[in-house]
């Protein structure tokens, strides 16, 4: 809780402590090699790769259509975002500029629901990391309702393969809009409940405020994006700065960390930005749901995806930050090289910089506030 | 415009490509990277390594973004696989892990990287699997690699 600035008063021999790969607080199979001096951390080295599934190597042997479900599996907590990001990048490579507006509306609606569900996991698990168990069960209860909605639409609960390059797998069920609005009416007051239970909880604030402060310039230098960057007070959101799809039609704000409980860019700010973002997602959903236009969702699906020779880099704002696909096409139906720039990979690399000098229990707080998913770090 | 500042300074050393990116030589990269940082490209989004599969040549693509001016810049370097590329990990810290990945997957050598080792693959892995000439080994740590894939393909 207190950063030790002058280590000479408590200096002792350094010890290497291994945390993970099987540790409940590392959010998956992440191993941390922590060099400690007493209980003070002097250096952390994240060791990753335990979940490496050769995504990029597979892509070189699969056709563009076959990659779509693989892209979903990278970020298993926000699979809809990955599918959407991949679809946008292939459309850019093919030169498809306009899609039927029904497709765009459905994509944005599902992406915003996915953002809420991913943030619910993030804030629940963050509470769990610092010792609050009840919020986790509450957020999972509400996330379950979103997953039920997704199950209705796509037939799957976690990995959807619903957004295809050029369109969607199938249309929405007729009851979807009413059920979605019903959920929003139920969910909006719930955010206040989370705030009462966790956000303004004294113990929670003591554990997270002022811990792991990440200044803005450090965040940009390390390539940190998403809620973690906005928590440092930088209003950067691709949905606002470079609107893809139809985000320019909606009215929403980009919440940033303001240091309400401590310093700008501390763990509490990174947490609270996610709570505020859920409110913004509700705002977008309330605007989008009543005005879904009619149309055919498969009319723009390309018969065969065989892009011309060339390279593109496309970006997308997922729940964790800025995901990029760099695709080199050699004129065949498989890419010659596909590189995924995953947001959590860059967000994790800042861990040593912002948590050295803190205690071991604070490392867990910082790690929880960064909201990493090992599936997309290791790919 | 930051991009024009870059082109103006190195007009005789860069070659403009179709999609607005610039091909530069790896010997000039040390000077250029420092200049690119100075003119406002503070956010290095991605480093992509690729294999050209001709004359043992490899390539790197750097995608930059300026958070101030909302501008993009893509730099590409193509070189022989034994050349050592100047590491930008001390200018943009995010390059540290991206360059380790490029070494791990493609076997690109970097000059001046603070902590160069494999990142995603195990330390005892042999070879660089994203190279086009990479062949599956017969054994991994004494265990035979299954060649009959009819079970899952």
Characterize the structure shown.
The complex is a heterodimer of chains A (379) and B (153). Chain A has 379 residues and is an alpha+beta fold. Chain A has a single domain, classed as Cytochrome-c3 Hydrogenase, chain B (Orthogonal Bundle). Chain A has 15 helices and eight strands. Chain A has helices at 55-59, 64-72, 79-94, 101-129, 134-154, 176-199, 202-208, 216-221, 227-231, 238-241, 267-288, 343-349, 351-355, 360-370, 374-378, and strands at residues 14-19, 31-37, 40-47, 163-164, 167-168, 310-317, 322-329, 335-341. Chain A has a three-stranded antiparallel beta sheet. A three-stranded antiparallel beta sheet of chain A has the order 6-7-8. A two-stranded antiparallel sheet of chain A has the order 4-5. In chain A, a hairpin with a 5-residue loop joins strand 7 (322-329) and strand 8 (335-341). The longest helix of chain A has 29 residues, at 101-129. Chain B has three helices and nine strands; from the N terminus they run H-E-E-H-E-E-E-E-H-E-E-E. Chain B has helices spanning 2-9, 29-38, 95-106, and strands spanning 15-16, 22-24, 43-51, 57-66, 71-80, 84-86, 109-111, 139-140, 143-144. Chain B has a five-stranded mixed beta sheet. In chain B, strands 6-7 form a two-stranded parallel sheet. Chain B has a two-stranded antiparallel sheet with strand order 8-9. The longest helix of chain B is centred in the middle third of the chain and has 12 residues, at 95-106. Chain B starts with a helix and ends in a 9-residue tail after the last strand.
């Amino acid at each position: 809780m207190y950063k030790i600035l002058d280590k000479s008063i408590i200096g002792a021999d350094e010890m290497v402590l291994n945390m993970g790969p099987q540790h409940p607080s590392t959010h998956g199979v992440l191993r941390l090699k922590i060099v400690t001096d007493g209980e003070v951390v002097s250096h952390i080295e994240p060791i990753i790769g335990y979940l490496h599934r050769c995504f990029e190597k597979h892509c070189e042997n699969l056709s563009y259509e076959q990659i779509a479900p693989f892209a979903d599996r990278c970020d298993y907590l926000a699979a809809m975002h990955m599918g959407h990001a991949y679809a946008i990048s292939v459309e850019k490579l093919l030169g498809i500029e306009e899609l039927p507006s029904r497709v765009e509306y459905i994509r944005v609606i599902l992406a915003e629901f996915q953002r809420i569900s991913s943030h619910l996991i993030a804030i629940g698990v963050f509470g769990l990391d610092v010792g609050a168990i009840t919020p986790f069960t509450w957020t999972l209860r509400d996330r379950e309702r979103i997953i039920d909605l997704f199950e209705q639409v796509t037939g799957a609960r976690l990995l959807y393969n619903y957004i295809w390059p050029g369109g969607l797998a199938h249309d929405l069920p007729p009851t979807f809009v009413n059920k979605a609005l019903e959920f929003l009416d139920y969910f909006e007051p719930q955010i206040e409940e989370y705030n009462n239970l966790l956000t303004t909880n004294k113990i929670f604030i003591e554990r997270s405020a002022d811990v792991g402060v990440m200044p803005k310039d450090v965040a940009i230098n390390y390539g940190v994006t998403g809620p973690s960057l906005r928590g440092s007070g930088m209003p950067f959101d691709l949905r606002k700065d470079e609107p893809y799809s139809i985000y320019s039609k909606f009215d929403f704000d980009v919440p940033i960390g303001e240091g309400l409980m401590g310093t700008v860019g501390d763990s509490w700010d990174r947490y609270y930005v996610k709570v505020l973002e859920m409110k913004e997602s509700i705002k977008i959903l309330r605007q989008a749901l009543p005005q879904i236009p009619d149309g055919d969702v498969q009319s723009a699906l390309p018969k065969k995806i065989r892009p011309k020779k060339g390279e593109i880099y496309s970006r997308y704002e997922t729940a964790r930050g800025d995901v990029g696909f760099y695709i080199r096409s050699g004129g065949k139906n498989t890419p010659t090289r596909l590189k995924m720039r995953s947001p959590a990979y860059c967000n994790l690399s800042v861990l040593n910089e912002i948590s050295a000098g803190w205690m071991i229990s604070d490392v867990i707080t910082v790690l929880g506030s960064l909201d990493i998913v090992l599936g997309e770090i290791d790919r | 415009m930051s991009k024009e500042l870059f082109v103006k300074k190195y007009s005789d050393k860069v070659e403009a490509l179709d999609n607005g990116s610039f091909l530069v030589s790896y010997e000039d990269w040390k000077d250029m990277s420092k200049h690119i940082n100075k003119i406002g490209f503070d956010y290095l989004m991605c480093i992509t390594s690729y294999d050209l599969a001709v004359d043992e040549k490899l390539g790197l693509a750097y995608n930059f973004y300026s958070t101030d001016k909302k501008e993009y810049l893509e730099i590409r370097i193509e070189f022989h696989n034994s050349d050592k590329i100047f590491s930008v990990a001390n200018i943009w810290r995010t390059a540290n892990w991206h360059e380790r990945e490029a070494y791990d997957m493609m076997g690109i050598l970097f000059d001046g990287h603070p902590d160069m080792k494999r990142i995603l693959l195990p330390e005892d892995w042999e070879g660089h699997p994203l190279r086009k000439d990479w062949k599956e080994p017969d054994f991994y740590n004494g265990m035979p690699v299954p060649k009959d894939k009819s079970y899952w393909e």
